[in-house]
Amino acid sequence: MARLADYFVLVAFGPHPRGSGEGQGQILQRFPEKDWEDNPFPQGIELFCQPSGWQLCPERNPPTFFVAVLTDINSERHYCACLTFWEPVEPTQEELCARDAAERDEEADEGGPGALPPPTPSPPGQLFAPKTLVLVSRLDHVEVFRNSLGLIYTIHVEGLNVGLENVVGNLLTCVIPLAGGSQRTISLGAGDRQVIQTPLTDSLPISRCSVALLFRQLGITNVLSLFCAALTEHKVLFLSRSYQRLSDACRGLLALLFPLRYSFTYVPILPAQLLEVLSTPTPFIIGVNAAFQAEAQELLDVIVADLDGGTVTVPECVHIPPLPEPLQSQTHSILSMVLDPELELADLAFPPPTTSISSLKMQDKELRAVFLRLFAQLLQGYRWCLHMVRIHPEPVIRFHKAAFLGQRGLVEDDFLMKVLEGMAFAGFVSERGVPYRPTDLFDELVAHEVARMRADENHPQRVLRHVKELAEQLYKNENPYPAVAMHKVQRPGEASHLRRAPRPFPRLDEGMVQWIVDQATAKMQGAPPAVKAEKRTTVPSGPPMTAIVERSGGLHGNSARRLEVVRNCISYVFEGKMLEAKKLLPAVLRALKGRAARRCLAQELHLHVQQNRAVLDHQQFDFVVRMMNCCLQDCTSLDEHGIAAALLPLVTAFCRKLSPGVTQFAYSCVQEHVVWSTPQFWEAMFYGDVQTHIRALYLEPAEDRDSFSVCGGSLGRGMGGPGSRSPVALRQVGEAPVQEDERSALDVASEQRRLWPTLSREKQQELVQKEESTVFSQAIHYANRMSYLLLPLDSSKSRLLRERAGLGELESASNSLVTNSMAGSVAESYDTESGFEDAETCDVAGAVVRFINRFVDKVCTESGVTSDHLKGLHVMVPDIVQMHIETLEAVHRESKRLPPIQKPKLLRPRLLPGEECVLDGLRVYLLPDGREEGAGGPGGGPALLPAEGAVFLTTYRVIFTGMPTDPLVGEQVVVRSFPVAALTKEKRVSVQTPVDQLLQDGLQLRSCTFQLLKMAFDEEVGSDSAELFRKQLHKLRYPPDIRGTFALSLGSAHTPGRPPRANKDKGPSFRTLSRNLVKNAKKTIGRQYVTRKKYNPPSWEHRGQPPPEDQEDEISVSEELEPSTLTPSSALKPSDRMTMSSLVERACCRDYQRLGLGTLSSSLSRAKSEPFRISPVNRMYAICRSYPGLLIVPQSVQDNALQRVSRCYRQNRFPVVCWRSGRSKAVLLRSGGLHGKGVVGLFKAQNAPSPGQSQADSSSLEQEKYLQAVVSSMPRYADASGRNTLSGFSSAHMGSHGKWGSVRASGRSGGLSTDVGSRLAGVGPPQANGAPPEPGFLRPQRAALYIIGDKAQLKGVRPDPLQQWELVPIEVFEARQVKASFKKLLKACVPGCPATEPSPASFLRSLEDSEWLIQIHKLLQVSVLVVELLDSGSSVLVSLEDGWDITTQVVSLVQLLSDPFYRTLEGFRLLVEKEWLSFGHRFSHRGAHTLAGQSSGFTPVFLQFLDCVHQIHLQFPMEFEFSPFYLKFLGYHHVSRRFRTFLLDSDYERIELGLLYEEKGDRRAPQACRSVWEYVERLSKRTPVFYNYMYAPEDAEVLRPYSNVSNLKVWDFYTEETLAEGPPYDWELAQGPPEPPEEERPDGGAPQSRRRVVWPCYDSRPRAQPDAISRLLEEMQRLETELGRPPERWKDAWDRVKAAQRLEGRPDGRGTPSSLLVSSVPHHRRSLGVYLQEGPVGSTLSLSLDSDQSSGSTASSSRQAARRSTSTLYSQFQTAESENRSYEGTLYKKGAFMKPWKARWFVLDKTKHQLRYYDHRADTECKGVIDLAEVEAVAPGTPAMGAPKTVDEKAFFDVKTTRRVYNFCAQDVPSAQQWVDQIQSCLSDA
User: What pLDDT score does 364 carry?
Assistant: First the structure.
């Protein structure tokens, strides 16, 4: 029973003490005046009576009523019912006047009791003050309070004849029952009657209509978000003008939260004076009058619900997590069905006539029922995650939050996570976790209705029915007796408040009220306490948990197979079938991503533990540890799925013997996981284990043992629901069902709590002690366990451990501790000196001790361990840790002695001669880099990457070799390498290793040869080794000096300690050089072509390897040198060395002579006929360092003038001639850009000379003369054209670009305007696709010289007054743009990380963004423009930037397009040597070869040129003697620094370093190939890989390629890759010859096995499937070997075939044999068509366009292309047989070794000088040829084995050639003699 009301208070308005306008409340009277003992009087009531402040009012307001809620210090709520009415203000003494007093007396007399005078208006100045009657109670009976206070007011206003003291006294003494559904009628003694009903269970909240009203005011979505906000501890503020509504809304929100209790600040009505409470940092639910809305808006983190406006405002910084789906949407839809039942019927054609809408009270209960169901669904199965930590003296219960979230499948759910961490839920656990207590509706629902709710989910009507049933129960709880007797309470009359009150509310007699109260109290004491016995029961646990959303069924079938794999693998491991296990391991590691598989693993491993121990051998141990690590790595720190919990007992069980007395346990190898350093995990584990042991205390021994067998020991204890009854871990996997009779810990606890009161005091004490010691022993056990998992095996690694989670900061975690320490393969730590180690150990020990102590403190305090025991634990922990450290030292020592894990053997890469390993293999994983082919992308094929292997660093390359980690790919070797010099970017990355999925340090290396190594270092590679690798790589990539590069340091290995040449030699050496330069140049030019030394080609067998030593000479010496030059250079005197300068300049001079440009004569006897001469003016490199020593200048210009001209140009690179057209005699000149003062001074209209500029003026003058001299050296017809230049064009040609238009550098449209192109070409606009216009009719008006210059430099320049030359300003891109563009191109082709959505479009998009093709388009466009100009007879000077980048590109391309010679192998070499090397392209600077160039980065100007050549090659495949492979080869090696050719920036630098001589002179040096050209030449002799079989040039063909971007193709050099052997450009490293044909295999395999699978990106397709011609050449070689003839050079064979083809194609003998392939394409563009003419014999050679890099193939000998093979000499003869057969007949010929004799038809051909043979007389196909030039002797022979029996001995004769001896036998002696004579005569004729 409880008092209905504790206090009655009368509060009135009083003036503010500080005299402000506002008043304050004053308590006039309170009853009782003494505080009750059990309930002190609440402070601050006067604030809550008038929450908006005490103010006077000008008019009478009607009385108001509301209930405020105050919370005391013990969290008890006090309900303050306030009834406020207004009374006239009492005037102060001074204001009182008699009239007023008299008036008041009259009124008082008239208004006797019961009289109702008509309402009279109050006087004009009258003010009214509020007065409040307050009832304070701890019970929540709002209506009773309203009626009671109303009654008191009525008595006062209506003047009823009832003593107010009596009424108040009765009110204060009224006692009612608390709960239990009783009914009580009360009366306050004024003729009134009220019935009070108490709720059935007081745990259910009373809501009346508040919830329904809340939904009406705010709507479903808003209420749901307020509900979530309150649950997740956000601040909620209600606003309304009505106080009653505020308290109703707060009451409704609290009712929705049931069964959770709101435990934060709860103030439904907050007074204005206390508004600062709103800025409290804690969560709250508060109501405030809407008048204070402005204050509320300033709060940043408060959710404001405006009840009057129906809105909820959530600030930006607040995130309210929504309910987990599908609960959110289900709740929403069922709420709308309750609130708006007509919604379902709104669309019906025939809606039912009426729908019954529930009353507001009933609707309120229905809404609450929805939320009750929601909580039952959310918290379903919560009792399975309770841990009973103590039963006596009081239950201690903990909730295993992680297991609950894991089981419900809501680990990621923000909402539930926050709810479970909140205070409300903590209260829920301590209140409802108790196993023996009264139960209520929620307990029933969560235990018994779960299945029904799940079944109803998709049936809205059934859900609604369930909601209505629950609502009935809730309603019944509030209104147990529906037929209530009527209340009878007097009320004041209508508008009574407006009447003049008879008097102020009277002062009550305190004594009388107190007497009534005392009387009642005395009576109460006498009566027996009415205790209603609470019905306590065991709380049902309900069914086990299930996930909120069932995962899709498809997964289960799949997972069953996976579990099978896991089980098989483990059984193989324990049966010792290691190979089988190894095969399954990758699949198992993949399967272990799934939860079921991880549980299965724990279970299976558990079966192999006997007596808590399982000793394994090393391999088994490795497997088990790897699988455990794989399981644990995906565990979060909370271990929701209990995987770590299940493995914890196992890591201390599995072990291996390292040596006698030293055992290593698995825990030392699985420490590197975040879960072990999470205190929450250890707490949950600890409580789980304590529960198991507490339960065992109270169970019978038999039952206990039984339960353990079922539980599988401690497996799943952490998960075990109510006391490990059925460890969910086991249950879920589908094991045998658990025995039902087994009692859970909660059941046991419930039983014990029931018995507790009946036990004796001693027995109680004993049980408490037993429980306490159980907890204590578990704490010791856990201190040990924690030290196992927190102390690292190698304490010297502790510097990593300090960063590790849980010890330093509890949250963060790192992967620095290597898990493979188990096999002792931990790399030796660098700092294991003892002192350092000890200090570190202490540090680690300290961190672990602190961690364990914190844990022990927390759990022991919570579980009630005595303080003595706790102190003992604190003393014990450091000893435990220290002891464990000592044990570990022995384990660590022994584990290091173990043989390391059997990892795949490291494959050593093949190295070039002279290449040395700098760093031996570091074990790494090569990861996919975004090119899909390697990872088995859309192209199909196996996943070659990731691969496991090692990275090697050599003096030349970075090489990865390894094998794919995917076991299904097979034993394929994966190689990826690039030259160190090509490295462009290196960055550290953090990546996951493919096998163990550990996060490891990695390195990403990108190279400009389009290779990318993205590597993760294996755990055994220490960070120091990785760092060393980076440093060494950097040192090799950027040597401090060029001498440190591979090409130069290579030779130094053989002459150790050779000091670099001292600087003082430089002067004399240059002087001597310059003299000899001139001398030798004359010599060179005097000699026509250099004769070649005749040599024997290497045999076909040697094709794959470098030639043997004795052949070195013949192969490498291609020119006959003077004897002196053949001596090694080191032995030469400096002056002799200088005689070799001919070699320096020979390339240029030879070319100048070929072009008819040069005579080198003294200035006195200058040959006037020659317009140009070779000037040695730069022989000392004095005028221009970056130019060659000999230059072509106009005949008329003196050498001394050149010095002055050069000053006008950047870098002193003045205009020199580099090519002359053979047809139009126009010349191409090149120079650097102009200095500002030079040409501008020359051309500008006003050239005002400033003082001291005379030098500049004179040089400008020289320059004008110089250009004039160039112009006058032109052919004469330039004059005949009149001086009309382009400026004479009609204005129609002017276009929009001013005079010239421009080739734009920016903008995609780029390029020449139609206008410029057409005027320069002198024809109509170019064709649509970018093809040049037809060179039909050239206009005569042309300037003699066009100067192509940079638009920026030529600004304001006016044309030459005589109009002999004209300026063409164009915009060009700069080197830095090339660099930036290349970076993007590299990114596009080799992305570095797999694309998120790989599609061809993304590649094309990034390719376009790079603008690489746009730059190539511009280069081709400018080049074609220059070609057109030259072709039409005008000369061109290209004068761009510094004259060594774009100028070189343009000039080289122009020569390549204009002159067929440069399209041969020899010519292209000459072109590169002349334009790129001699004219000083800065290879070292652009390639960042040394440390100095590191900052400038890699700028691929030469590569861009090669790309342009490749584009032209694609469009004119028949015009180039070299194959596309040749271009790729140069592209690769110009950055590789393998050869010296492309080192340094100019000839000057090369001479200074002494490179040019060595390159040409040291023929006998050990490294023969220092020059890339020499290498190409030697390789070409062995294999035609550089040769283009479609080469069939048109004479004097000028090429005009299409240049539009749409016509350009991405060069496959950028995209292709061969993982089988790495880049194919180092020929020695490529794989040997193809396998022998099947027939010759010893096993006699079936021929169909010749087929092989060619994988994209792994095999080289051109090599696997060579083009037709390479195939035929190989076939010929094979046949020759079979026939026993020495194989001949591929070039001879090819020339012979070409010749034969010509002869067959021209039976009439007329016409010139200009080409092997007669094309039917129009003359100026013979693009991709390949036509072979049918010969009379019908033998057509099949040609493949894909002659790229074929297995047998490589390029032509470096003879000049013009010199055809000798067989072409015979083409004028007709092929009629009679003419070509001088003598014929049958002879027997003996085959090669062990072959029989055969009769053949032989033909002696004196014309062709050969002996041919056929199968028979009519045979037209020749079966073999003996070249008579090779025959040395013809002699009589002897019969050999197997010769024809009938033939005379003298009929045998032998023909001896340089290659072999042929044995012949005629039919008889005379014919033999005749054959010998004929052959002899043939030889003598020759």
Answer: 93
